[in-house]
Design brief:
The structure holds 2 protein chains of 2 kinds.
Chain A (H helix, E strand, L loop, with lengths): L3 E4 L2 E3 L6 E7 L7 E6 L6 E5 L3 E2 L7 E6 L2 E6 L8 E8 L5 E3 L3 E4 L1
Parallel strand pairs in A: 2-11
Antiparallel strand pairs in A: 1-3, 3-8, 4-5, 4-9, 5-6, 7-8, 9-10, 9-11
Chain B lengths: L2 E5 L2 E3 L5 E8 L8 E6 L5 E7 L6 E3 L7 E6 L4 E6 L8 E9 L3 E5 L3 E5 L2
Parallel strand pairs in B: 2-11
Antiparallel strand pairs in B: 1-3, 3-8, 4-5, 4-9, 5-6, 7-8, 9-10, 9-11
Classes of the chains: A mainly beta, B mainly beta.
Chain lengths: 107, 118
């Protein structure tokens, strides 16, 4: 099974800061990686799919990159509404998925 | 617009069974596969099961394999999760999620709480 790690597990930054989260897969997953945002009490929301494609309607301050085993997720200018937990998710040919442990972003 | 609404949660004792439902609207149901994903209190997201649009391919996370069954009824636009032999560690909010494109989930339900406790 593919394992996913994320770092940091939590971070605190100021409004306007650039925030970067990393996600690492235990084996090569090409670009089979998605990023989700989850606010307290809410369902997850898709932000990035295929490692770097921004989901329709998602603000352009969010971006993703990487391939193989190492991936990054960036918020270019942190906004108050970005307070949330962010999860990476890998998927395989069978559509089975594994989530990373999450990164809690605070202001 | 696309909506997914889960139901069927509740409080059960260890060893008991429960069936969750997820009714979908605003989409061509037969075109999509669906996941069940759960989240234990204060914890992260954990994938549970997936069913493809053909209803034939179904896959499960290891700890639920043999206890949980995912199914679909295209005539009712509904996904089910039959959960047997429930354990305390199955306590979680259960979400259904639509699969779009190359396996990303763009729509999620609001979640339903399952509590397993004696």
């Amino acid at each position: 099974d593919i394992q996913m790690t994320q770092s940091p597990s939590s971070l605190s930054a100021s409004v306007g800061d650039r925030v970067t989260i990393t996600c690492q897969a235990s084996q090569d997953i090409s670009k089979r990686l998605n990023w989700y945002q989850q606010k307290p009490g809410q369902a997850p929301q898709l932000l990035i799919y295929g490692a770097s494609t921004l989901q329709t309607g998602v603000p352009s301050r969010f971006s993703g990159g990487g391939s193989g085993t190492d991936f990054t997720f960036t918020i270019s200018s942190l906004q108050p509404e970005d307070v949330a937990t962010y999860y990476c998710q890998q998927y395989d040919d069978l559509a089975t998925v594994t989530f990373g442990p999450g990164t809690k972003v605070e202001i | 617009q696309v909506q997914l609404v889960e139901s069927g949660g509740g409080v059960v004792q260890p060893g008991e069974s429960l069936r969750l439902s997820c009714v979908a609207s605003g989409l061509i149901f037969r075109n999509h596969g669906f996941h069940w994903v759960r989240q234990a209190p204060g914890q992260g997201l954990e994938w549970v099961a997936v069913i493809w649009n053909d209803g034939l391919k179904k896959y499960y996370e290891g700890s639920v394999k043999g206890r949980f069954t995912i199914s679909r009824d295209d005539s009712k636009n509904t996904i089910y999760l039959e959960m047997n032999s429930l354990r305390a560690e199955d306590t979680a909010v259960y979400f259904c999620a639509r699969i779009a494109g190359v396996f990303y989930s763009d729509y999620w339900g609001q979640g339903v709480l399952v509590t397993v406790s004696s």
